[in-house]
Amino acid sequence: MKFLRNKVQLNRQAGSIYLEMLLSLFVWLTILCSLIPAFFHLTISRKALLLENEANHILTTQIAKWYLKEPLDTVIEGEGTIKFFVEIEREMEEIRGICVRYQGWIKKEKRICRTIAEK
């Protein structure tokens, strides 16, 4: 009889362990479901800022080339597979500004422009 009592107590303890494991699984899933979207949002924002920074750098170098009377590049290969397109904005035969157009991180076309002061 004593043997049966010990066996019943062991079964109750085993059920308690499964319940604790199930509870800890739900806690971990809740933590992961709240942290992973935030991590992905930060990663995407970081990539977008890196692209914008690279576009600004390209735009600055193209404006410096324009002031030095050097030919401007029309297509520039960026990091990875990103291509930057340099365009000249004209208004009635006068150059008004230089723009850099590129495909954003979420496949959205972005454009950064700066006006040029005439000498």
Characterize the structure shown.
The protein has 119 residues and is α+β, with helices and mostly antiparallel strands. The protein has one domain (2-115). Helix content is 55%, strand content 24%. The chain has one helix at residues 2-67, and strands at residues 75-77, 83-91, 94-103, 109-115. A four-stranded antiparallel beta sheet has the order 1-2-3-4, covered by helices on one side. A hairpin with a 5-residue loop joins β1 (75-77) and β2 (83-91). The longest helix is centred in the first third of the chain and has 66 residues, at 2-67. The chain crosses the membrane at residues 21-40. Keywords: Membrane, Transmembrane, Transmembrane helix.
Major β-sheet profile: 4 strands, antiparallel
Q: What would you call the quaternary organization?
A: single chain
Derived from helix and strand composition plus strand pairing, the structural class reads alpha+beta
Whole-angstrom Rg: 30 Å
Write out the strand line-up for the largest beta sheet, numbering strands in chain order.
1-2-3-4
Helix content: 55-70%
CA(first)-CA(last) distance: 105 Å
